[in-house]
């Protein structure tokens, strides 16, 4: 009975979590009149692709998706590289003030993002990076406290004997990291890459502040632009949201096995 009750609770939580995504995908294929006149769970009959075609052609959603792909892809690459190096230094190397520096850096997670937006904008303006890809990418491309903490916790689960054996064979620090530690850390790196990509893809506030032209605007801004001050074309908003959702679903399904394994091994569950 306890197991039945547990699974019922988990099933209810899964339904609540997945329902908005299913409703978005279903409504994206409805006729414009049906979006507001029928319940969200009613199937899209007849199915229409006009909403997606209109968003794709008239509102240049392909360009916004490409901007988001460049933005999220480069930020993810930077975070995986630099977070890995910082996590190895904090987790496997010894140097004066290591723990104080790590916990001080980790404490910056308590600072709300809104507090740093204005200073970041002023810095980007001084470097002439307003409305550019570099202005979008640089603030988060060199690692985040969460990413470094996540990878560091995983590195600490790797037995020290493995690293010591490599050093006895003459391996240096860089060789140990790239040829011993990283091959054993693929699950956590896949997890970090997935979380970073999804978080960056969904970011709205920083792209809204740093960009001011369609040349660099990302998909979240493209979707928000479909909502007018006095009226909104909900069928187009839902179609654009469905297009933005599909890449995230594909990435999660591709890496879900690594995510579950890394969370179990790091004890973060």
TrEMBL record:
Q: Which organism encodes this protein?
A: Nonomuraea phyllanthi
The entry assigns this protein to a family as follows:
Belongs to the binding-protein-dependent transport system permease family.
Q: Which InterPro entries match?
A: MetI-like (IPR000515), MetI-like_sf (IPR035906)
Q: Name one GO cellular component term.
A: plasma membrane
Give the record's keywords alphabetically.
Answer: Cell membrane, Membrane, Transmembrane, Transmembrane helix, Transport
GO biological process assignments: transmembrane transport
What is the protein name stated in its UniProt record? ABC transporter permease subunit
Q: Signal peptide position in this chain?
A: none
């Amino acid at each position: 009975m306890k197991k039945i009750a547990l699974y019922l609770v988990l099933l209810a939580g899964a339904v609540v979590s997945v329902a908005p995504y299913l409703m978005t995908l279903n409504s994206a294929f409805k006729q414009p009149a049906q979006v507001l006149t029928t319940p969200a769970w009613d199937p899209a009959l007849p199915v229409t692709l006009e909403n997606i075609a209109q968003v794709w052609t008239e509102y240049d959603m392909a360009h916004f998706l490409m901007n988001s792909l460049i933005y999220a892809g480069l930020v993810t690459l930077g975070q995986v590289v630099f977070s890995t190096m910082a996590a190895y230094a904090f987790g496997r190397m010894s140097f004066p003030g290591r723990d104080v520096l790590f916990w001080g850096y980790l404490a910056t997670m308590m600072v709300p993002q809104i507090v740093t937006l204005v200073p970041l904008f002023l810095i980007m303006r001084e470097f002439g990076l307003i409305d550019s890809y570099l202005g979008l990418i640089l603030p988060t491309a060199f690692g985040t406290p969460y990413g470094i903490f996540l990878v560091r916790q995983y590195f600490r689960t790797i037995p020290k004997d493995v690293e010591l054996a490599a050093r006895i064979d003459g391996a240096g620090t860089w060789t140990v990291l790239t040829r011993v530690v990283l091959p054993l850390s693929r699950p956590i790196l896949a997890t970090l890459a997935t979380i970073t990509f999804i978080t960056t893809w969904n970011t709205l506030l920083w792209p809204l502040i740093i960009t001011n032209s369609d040349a660099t605007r990302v998909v979240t801004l493209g979707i928000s632009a479909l909502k007018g001050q006095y009226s909104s074309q909900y069928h187009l908003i839902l179609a654009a949201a469905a297009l933005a959702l599909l890449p995230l679903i594909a990435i999660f399904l591709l890496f879900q096995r690594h995510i579950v394994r890394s969370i179990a091994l790091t004890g973060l569950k």
